[in-house]
Specification:
Ferredoxins are iron-sulfur proteins that transfer electrons in a wide variety of metabolic reactions. By secondary structure, this protein is of the alpha+beta class. Helices cover 24% and strands 30% of the residues. It contains two helices and five strands. The structure holds iron/sulfur cluster (SF4).
């Protein structure tokens, strides 16, 4: 099953929680806001997917979501 990371940069406040939770996927851009550095598609059930789910839960701005399909 695949999942797609959806980032709403309009909501991001640059708290950096996502970068700590899943550094393989998220980074801070020059503007301090979230930037996806990995693939936006991820295989669910992997350590990376778990990190992304953790980031989604931690984000104080609710700027992240994981859309699972399949
Ligand atoms: S945790 Fe949320 S608010 Fe913080 S940098 Fe990531 S997306 Fe932005």
């Amino acid at each position: 099953m695949n999942a797609r990371i959806v980032v709403d940069r309009e909501r991001c406040v640059g708290a950096g929680q996502c970068v700590l939770a899943a550094p393989e996927v998220f980074d801070s851009g020059d503007d301090g806001l979230v930037r996806v550095v990995g693939d936006t598609e991820t295989e669910t059930g992997t350590a990376v997917a778990d990190g992304i789910r953790h980031a989604v839960r931690l984000c104080p701005a609710r700027a992240l979501s994981l859309r699972e399909d399949g």
